[in-house]
Amino acid sequence: MSNGWNEPRTIKTPVWYYRWMNGLKTPHKETHKSHRAAWLRAAVLGVNDGVVSTASLMVGVSAAAASKSAILTAGIAGLSAGALSMAAGEYVSVSSQRDSERADIAIEERSLAANPEGELAELAWIYEQRGLDPVLAKKVATQLHKHDAVAAHARDELGIDHESLANPMQASVASASSFAFGAIVPILATILFSGGKGSSMAIVIASLIALAISGAIGAAIGGGHRLLAAGRVLVGGGLAMAVTAFIGHLIGASL
Known about the structure:
The protein is an all-alpha fold and 255 residues long.
């Protein structure tokens, strides 16, 4: 009489797995937030940076008793320089990231060509560390090696989706656009109000409102606490504008 341990068993594929593998709708659907992290962080950072840096620059110039035209010139120059700087910086940064990802994938391709059995054992070990028993881990690793060994190692060993590498141009345009979108707020506030202290107050109020809105929207999209997020950007932006206004006042008084 067999104890059942050594008998081969037929593992029935779950219906949801079959449907998922064939691109069909799963019976259980969940909406998660973490997949938005990359683009959300870039968008919120760009808008907030555009508002804070441009508003701080304009408030600093205004505190030095400059004319309305000088304040507007400073704001437009800040928008242009900031957007171009964000675009260039993001392009270089993301290009470096993509080069690093490609280099790692190339290393894996060479390792797979030189030592396929060792790479297979390594992938199986990774799955064991994630909770699979050794036999199942080896089976899964073997099947994935047959399907696409490079993709399996890139994803599970390196954490890279080699079909969706970082896009420098996309990141560059997104960062520049979000910065310009934020920077236009203090510029419009200056255009709509007269020069002098009224212009400074308009810049500060409009910028703080824009920061609170962007922080709350970012939190809503990302699933965070809206008031807490709005408070963080309000404090940071307000402090930046206050410091810059103080410096502008000191320079204006000494010249």
